[in-house]
TrEMBL record:
Pfam families xref list: F-box (PF00646), Kelch_1 (PF01344)
InterPro entries, A to Z: F-box-like_dom_sf, F-box_dom, Kelch-typ_b-propeller, Kelch_1, KMD1-4
A cellular-component GO term for this protein: cytosol
Stretches for region Disordered: 79-114
Native source species: Carpinus fangiana
Positions with biased composition (Basic and acidic residues): 100-112
GO biological process: negative regulation of cytokinin-activated signaling pathway; regulation of phenylpropanoid metabolic process
Designated name of the protein: F-box domain-containing protein
Domain F-box, first and last residues per copy: 26-66
Length: 441
C-alpha cells in the first residue's frame, strides 16, 4: 500500500514538473529554441495549446528571442488603395430604379456623377515568406470605420503593434487627428483599438519612432491646407500625447527620420504655405535632452522632389545612413544625373558614401515607396523594400512592381555588392502604398 502511494506521489510530481515545462521532457532552453522557429501565422493556434505557451507568445521577450536567434519575420506594413470591384452592367431598368431611389432619398442628381472615393486598407507583406495579407478594417461603436486616406503607418517592433495616424477622413477629405492601434501579439489575436488622438488634425506630416514606444510627429498641413510648424510626441505605453516646441519653419510634405541608437528625431525638407511644391534644402532635429530644435542646412538638394517615400533610414556597422532612391530623370533635372543612394550623418557631416544602379522599373519618374527591412546593426545583408506605381501584368494575375534590394556592407575597396530581387505581387495588392513601415516579429 505504501509503495502504491509513493508511486502515485512521484507520478503527480512528475506531472507537475512537466506542466511547468514548455515542452514536457525537454529543458526549457531547447523547447524555446523549437518554439521561436514556428512561423508567426501559427502563433494564434499555439496560444490555444496551454497557458504557458499562451503567456510566452504574448510576452515581448519571445519576439526578442526570435530576433536574437534570426528566426524573426520581416513584415512590410503598407497603406494601399483597395481594389475597386467591377460595377454590374447598367440596364435601362436598373438605371431607372437607381435614379428613382436617389430622388426618394433627396440626393442631388448632380452629385450622382461624382466618382466614389477610393477606400484604403492595411496590407502586410511578409518579406521572409513572400506572402501577402490584408488586415481587417478597424471597427468601433458605430460599426466599421474606414482607414483614413494618406494616414501614416508606423510599426512598434518592441510591442508588436502597428499605428495608423492622421490622414484624411475618406468622406469629408479633411485632416483628422485619429490614431488606431493594431496589436498583433495580444491575447485575442490581431485586434484594432482606437488610441488617444493627436492634439492637431494633420496630414502629410513627418513621423518617426524613437526607442521602443515613443512616436514623434511634426509639420504637415491642417484642414485649410496651411503648412504646420507644430510637433508632438506620443507615449505608446501610456497612450498619451505631449506637445513639443514648434519647429523654426513650416514644413508640409516633410520626411521624418529616426535611427536606432539615436534619441533624436529628424524632419527633412518640406515646404511652407507660401511656397507649395518648392522643397526646402534644410532639416530640423529635435533633441529630447535639450527639448529644442536645431536646423541643419544643405541636406536635400532636390528643389522639386519630395523626400517622402523615396528615402529610408538604415543603421549599420558603419553608422547611420540615409538612403535615397531617385530615378535618373529626377537627378538630371536637379544636379546633372548623379547616382546618390546613401548618405551618412556621422557627426552631422553629410556625404555620399556609396551608390548603386537601380532597376529600370524604378529608374523613371514614377512614384516609389521605400522602407528598410529591419534596423539591426549587424544585419547582413542590408535589405530595402521598394514598390512602384507602375507594376506590369505578367498574364497570371500577378504584377512586377516591387523589389527587394540586398546590399552587403562596404568592403575595403569601398564597393558594396548589390542585388535586386523582384517580388511577385498579386494583382489585388499592387496598389501604390502611401505610407509603410517594417515590423519585425
Amino acid at each position: 500500500m505504501g509503495q502504491t502511494e509513493s508511486s502515485t506521489e512521484n507520478f503527480q510530481k512528475l506531472q507537475q514538473q512537466q506542466q511547468k515545462q514548455l515542452i514536457p521532457g525537454l529543458p526549457d532552453e531547447i523547447a524555446m529554441d523549437c518554439l521561436v522557429r514556428v512561423p508567426y501565422k501559427f502563433h494564434s493556434n499555439m496560444k490555444l495549446v496551454c497557458q504557458s505557451w499562451r503567456s510566452l507568445i504574448m510576452h515581448p521577450s519571445f519576439y526578442q528571442e526570435r530576433c536574437r536567434s534570426g528566426t524573426a519575420e520581416h513584415m512590410v506594413c503598407m497603406i494601399q488603395p483597395l481594389p475597386t470591384p467591377s460595377p454590374p452592367p447598367i440596364t435601362e431598368s436598373s438605371a431607372s430604379d437607381e435614379l428613382s431611389s436617389e430622388k426618394e432619398e433627396g440626393v442631388d442628381e448632380k452629385s450622382c456623377s461624382r466618382p466614389s472615393l477610393v477606400q484604403h486598407g492595411l496590407t502586410i507583406f511578409n518579406a521572409t515568406h513572400q506572402t501577402w495579407h490584408r488586415m481587417m478594417r478597424p471597427s468601433g461603436a458605430g460599426g466599421s470605420l474606414r482607414i483614413p486616406m494618406f494616414c501614416q503607418c508606423v510599426a512598434l517592433p518592441a510591442s508588436g503593434k502597428i499605428l495608423l495616424l492622421g490622414g484624411w477622413d475618406p468622406n469629408t477629405l479633411e485632416p483628422v487627428p485619429d490614431v488606431y492601434v493594431l496589436d498583433l501579439i495580444g491575447a485575442g489575436g490581431a485586434r484594432w483599438r482606437r488610441a488617444a488622438p493627436m492634439s492637431v488634425a494633420r496630414s502629410f506630416f513627418a513621423c518617426g519612432v524613437v526607442g521602443q514606444s515613443t512616436v514623434y510627429v511634426a509639420g504637415g498641413h491642417d484642414y485649410q491646407k496651411n503648412a504646420l510648424q507644430s510637433a508632438e510626441v506620443y507615449d505608446a505605453n501610456a497612450d498619451e500625447w505631449r506637445t513639443l516646441p514648434a519647429m523654426a519653419e513650416e514644413r508640409d510634405e516633410c520626411q521624418g527620420i529616426s535611427w536606432e541608437g539615436d534619441s533624436r528625431f529628424w524632419v527633412f525638407s518640406g515646404y511652407s504655405t507660401d511656397s507649395q511644391g518648392f522643397f526646402r534644402s534644410d532639416a530640423e532635429c529635435y533633441d529630447p535632452i535639450t527639448e529644442s530644435w536645431s536646423k541643419i542646412e544643405g541636406v536635400w538638394p532636390y528643389r522639386s522632389v519630395s523626400p517622402r517615400g523615396v528615402t529610408a533610414a538604415v543603421t549599420s556597422s558603419s553608422g547611420c545612413q540615409w538612403w535615397w532612391f531617385l530615378g535618373s530623370q529626377q537627378q538630371q533635372e536637379e544636379n546633372g544625373g548623379g547616382k546618390e543612394l546613401s548618405h551618412n550623418n556621422s557627426q552631422m557631416m553629410w556625404k555620399v558614401v556609396d551608390s548603386a544602379q537601380i532597376p529600370s522599373g524604378i529608374n523613371g519618374g514614377t512614384p516609389i515607396s521605400v522602407t528598410a527591412l529591419g534596423h539591426a546593426k549587424d544585419q547582413q545583408p542590408q535589405r530595402i523594400f521598394v514598390m512602384t506605381s507602375n507594376g506590369g501584368g505578367r498574364g497570371d494575375g500577378t504584377e512586377e512592381g516591387a523589389f527587394i534590394l540586398e546590399r552587403e556592407s562596404s568592403n575595403s575597396n569601398g564597393g558594396s555588392p548589390t542585388k535586386w530581387n523582384n517580388v511577385t505581387t498579386p494583382a489585388g495588392f499592387s496598389g501604390f502604398p502611401y505610407s509603410n513601415s517594417c515590423l519585425i516579429i
